[in-house]
Each structure stands twice: as C-alpha cells, then as structure tokens.
Amino acid sequence: MHVARLSLTDYRNYETADVELGPGATVLVGRNGQGKTNLVEAIGYLATLGSHRVSGDQALIKADAEAAIIRAVLAHGERRVLVELQLNRQGANKAQLNRGVVKPREIPRYAHSVLFAPEDLAIVRGEPSVRRRLLDELLVQRSPRLAGVMSDYERVLKQRNSLLKSARARGLAASALPTLDIWDERLVALGSEIIDERLALVAELAEPLAAAYRGIVDADHAPGLRPVLSIDGADAEDVGDADGGGLDTRSALLDQREGGTPDATSARFAAALARLRPKELERGVTLAGPHRDDVLLLLNGLPAKGYASHGESWSFALALRLASAELLRQDSSTGDPVLVLDDVFAELDRLRREKLAAAIGDYEQVLVTAAVLEDVPAPLAARIVRIHGGRIVDDELEASEASEASFDANGAAHV
Q1: 173 with 207, same domain?
Q2: Same structural domain, 319 and 337
Q3: What is the full per-residue pLDDT of the chain (415 aa) written as tens digits?
Q4: 32 marked among binding-site residues
C-alpha cells in the first residue's frame, strides 16, 4: 500500500495542503518548524487514530478553525480508496470511506503505516504507558476489531474505578458492593483478551526485533522483550525505576509466572482482583489488568531502561518500529505499510544511515523528513518535496526565496 495523495485542511499550521506522493522513497525537506512532521503525523493518524506527539486531537486543529480534515487516496495495485477524517473541536470526530459515512475506527483497516520519530526514545526510556501504546497500536492495525475491545475495556475500567472511589469516600466494605462483581466479570473478559493478544504479539516480535537491531547496529546485543503482568503480581506503575533497580523483582515475578501457573489468563485475572480488592477499596483504583502492565526491554540480559546508552536506546526503539513494520507486511492483505522516518538520519552516523537505508529500501513507500537534505542517503532521496511555512513549495529556488523573505520579515519585526 502507498499514499498516492494527501490533502489537509486546517491541520496544524496548514490552512490547505495538497501533495501527490508515489511508491518508493520521498524526502520532505525544510527548516525546523515549517510543517514537515505535520504532514507525516497526519498519515500516522489515519493508521492509529492518534498523534505520536500529543495525546488529544485539539492541538491538531488550526488555532482559528473548528475542525481539521485529513484526506488521503490510498493505492494498492490498481485499487484506490479515498479515506477522510474530520477532527472536531466540539463533538465526535467523523469519517468517510469513498464518500460513504463510516465510524472513525474503520479507517485503520485501510491505512497501515509505521512511524519512527525522536519521541520514540520514550519507548525505551519512558513510562510503561508508552510501551503499552506501541503494542496496542500494532495490534489494532493487524486486527482492527481489537479497537472495540480496548474501547470497551476502558469504559468498564472507568466505571469500576468510579465505583471504587465512591466506596472509598463513603467508607463502604466490599460486602456492600454487590455490583462490583458484575464489573469484575466484564473487566476480566475484556482484559484477558487484550493480555493474551499482547503476549502473542511480544512473542512474534522477538525474531524481527533481533534481525532489525543487527541490521542497524551490526552487532548482536541480544535485544529481548519480556512481559510484566500485573495479574501475576507485578505492578509496572510502581516497580522498576529508571536505573533498572526493579530488575530482580520483575524477573522473580516473571519466573514465577512462567514456571508454574498454567491457569488461563482469565482465572489468574479474577484471582488477582479478589486478592487486591482490599487495597483497591483503600486506594479507589483498579490495581490489576492490562492498563497496569509493561514490557521489559532487554539488551544483553539487562534492562535497556537505565543501562543502554543513548545510541543503543535509539537503535532499540528504531528496531522495534522496523520489527512492527515487518509483521505488518507479513500478514497484511494490502501489502507493505507506509514506512515513515521523521528526522531520524540526523541522529545517526554515516555507517548507520547507510545500513538503515539498505534495510528499508524494498518497502513500497518510504517517507523521510529532514531539515538538511545531505543527512539523507542518496538512495532515499529520489524524490524531494520542499516545505516552508505551512506550504508545499515547487522547487528549491522558491523555498530559498521564501526562507529569505521570512528572515527579512522577522528581522524587521525584531528591529
């Protein structure tokens, strides 16, 4: 699959934008702050219904507008699909597929992409929620129906937490909350499916992760993934600080689960809720479930968070994205996902730039953003789109003139 055309209206700093794209590699080049990332962010939004930079949609809508619109023509062979998303400042977002109204969560069925950006360093160094999001976005792209399961789980979790908070405020005992058992059943049913899907995905990622890391680094640092499950006693929100001090606790919990608890996930989940109910009533929050799980990232048997260097962390995060793209291309009926590299090459030395370019050269469509064109290996610079001030400019001369005009205006205003 590739994006044949992308149009934006009132999205970020674009009043309007319309750019034709094609198979192969395209570099979006321009100075920082001109709107390169906004274009690829919009493509990523179609695949994940979220931004890789902000948690909500409001920042995506131009300041003086009530809605932003993303339109894209997606091509797979001779087939063309028009997808449209309207992000509203007030009310629910809207979507269309070939001009027919659909639910927004239907769009990721048709738009597959994998985006790597500097913010992805948080996959290795950040909070568990970042790693959960990585897994969940990939799961939804591979199996869109899981978006509904995750949405239902969040709704049930919110209701259960509301009940727990109310009981804490009123000083009620567990015996006075008969409806809690009903919410527990629903939470276990939905949450167990999410946990099992994540576990299967972690196992599938192992081989392509190792291959991608070797391809980037040209060394075998034995990258690995180990699930950390709250239903088995681990609490990703409380265990394991930035220097890796929680490794022993996490490993013990993992070994305990892997060594002798053959029970189904749902049975372990239900048992965890029963065991934790006194603490939950005391704290007014649900303490077990996929919303409190994590994935421990390992290099040479040590947690990458805390032990990996900046370069190793960067390479690990990039390898995870490339592994995700590999899984999508293996099982997708629409072909390769669109591979997006946002300001990646500036962080790599010449050898790693060349190795990365070789690793991704056979993807159907690769979109690269760069402030300096010389940072991008020649094989990926076959087509260049220049961007300045929220506009797609026709050629290098126009971009240079626009840049000089902007500098003169800023200088005059400053004086």
Answers
A1: yes
A2: no
A3: 899 999 999 999 999 999 999 999 999 999 999 999 999 999 999 999 999 899 889 999 999 999 999 999 999 888 999 999 999 999 999 999 999 999 998 998 899 999 999 899 999 999 999 999 999 999 999 998 999 999 999 999 999 999 999 888 887 766 667 788 899 999 999 999 999 999 999 999 999 999 999 988 877 899 999 999 999 998 766 644 434 434 443 443 444 444 334 469 999 999 999 999 999 999 999 999 999 999 999 999 999 999 999 989 999 999 999 999 999 998 877 689 999 999 988 888 888 889 899 989 899 999 999 999 999 999 899 899 999 999 998 655 444 444 444 434 344 333 2
A4: yes
One domain, residues 265 and 175: yes
Q: Is 93 annotated as a binding residue?
A: no
Is 88 part of any known ligand binding site?
no
Tokens at 252, concatenated: 């013990």
Annotated binding residue 30: yes
Domain of residue 286 covers: 120-326
pTM given for the model:
0.85
126 annotated binding-site participant: no
Task: Select from 326, 351, 385 the last residue of a domain.
Answer: 326
Which CATH number characterizes residue 194's domain?
1.20.1050.90
Total number of domains in the chain: 2
HEC letters along the chain = CEEEEEEEEEECCEEEEEEECCCEEEEEECCCCCCHHHHHHHHHHHHHCCCCCCCCCHHHECCCCCEEEEEEEEEECCEEEEEEEEEECCCCCEEEECCEEECHHHHHHCCCEEEECHHHHHHHHCCHHHHHHHHHHHHHHHCCCHHHHHHHHHHHHHHHHHHHHHHHHHCCCHHHCCHHHHHHHHHHHHHHHHHHHHHHHHHHHHHHHHHHHHHHHCCCCCCEEEEECHHHCCCCCCCCCCCCCCHHHHHHHHHHHHHHCCCCHHHHHHHHHHHHHHHHHHHCCCCCCHHHCEEEEEECCEEHHHHCCHHHHHHHHHHHHHHHHHHHHHHCCCCCCEEEEECCHHHCCHHHHHHHHHHHCCCCEEEEEECCHHHCCHHHCCEEEEEECCEEECCHHHHHHHHHHHHHHHHHHHC
Judge whether 361 is annotated as a binding position: no
Residues 264, 153, single domain; the answer is yes
Q: Is 36 annotated as a binding residue?
A: yes
Report the CATH number at residue 8: 3.40.50.300
